[in-house]
Amino acid sequence: MITIENPKDLLSVSLYNIFSYRIDDEAFIDLVRDWNKKILVNIEKFYPVLINFNGENINFEFRDIQQKPDLKVTMNLSTLLDIAYDRIGPTKAILTGNLKIKGIYKIGTLLKFKKIFLDTLKMVAADPTDKYYELNQNTK
Questions:
Q1: Nearest CA to 39 among 81, 3, 68, 75?
Q2: Engineered SS bond to 7: which of 12, 93, 103, 108, CB 3.0-4.6 Å?
Q3: Does residue 137 surpass a pLDDT of 80?
Q4: Residue 10 lies in a domain
Q5: In terms of residue numbers, what domain contains 106?
Q6: Based on the structure, what is the number of domains in the chain?
Q7: Helices and strands counted in the chain (H then E)
Q8: Residue 77 neighbours by CB under 8 Å, 6+ apart
Q9: Distance (Å, rounded) from C-alpha 110 to C-alpha 127?
């Protein structure tokens, strides 16, 4: 069972919702279990969040990040949404300079993060209300 830390800030809430979307998916569990990597996601004009994958736990740090990440991903919010809605692919985003990745030479880490984060992000964007909201039939 994968455990995701309860979020304490705006970006962690978003990341929590993205990862929670596949919390019961065996493929996702296999990807995350025992990965033990630190990924720094920096959404420009916001602040960086360190995602710590450790055993079966996913934790977030957003203040005074002291740990060196295995991968640093930087993009603006528009690029994140363009990738989520399949308006641009990650490769094109990298080639155009809209997505910057420090540690890109760590191909195994990069590809696994793509499967864990970017693929899940696309799933959430394709089905935005699933597992998030319930229609209240009693409202007028």
A1: 68
A2: 12
A3: no
A4: yes
A5: 3-126
A6: 1
A7: 6, 6
A8: 43, 44, 45, 46
A9: 25
The model carries a pTM of 0.85
Q: pLDDT band at residue 22, thresholds of 50, 70 and 90?
A: very high
Give the number of C-alpha atoms closer than 13 A to the C-alpha of residue 20, restricted to the C-beta side.
15
Is position 134 within any domain? Answer: no
Say what the pLDDT of residue 136 is.
46
For residue 87, give the CATH number of its domain. Answer: 3.30.1050.10
Take residue 86 and report the two structure tokens written for it. Answer: 């399949």
Both structure tokens of 85: 């809605």
In sequence order, the β-bridge partners of residue 36 are none
125-134: pLDDT as tens digits:
998 665 544 4
pLDDT tens profile 39-60: 999 999 999 999 999 999 999 9
State the Cα–Cα distance between residues 14 and 136, nearest whole angstrom: 23
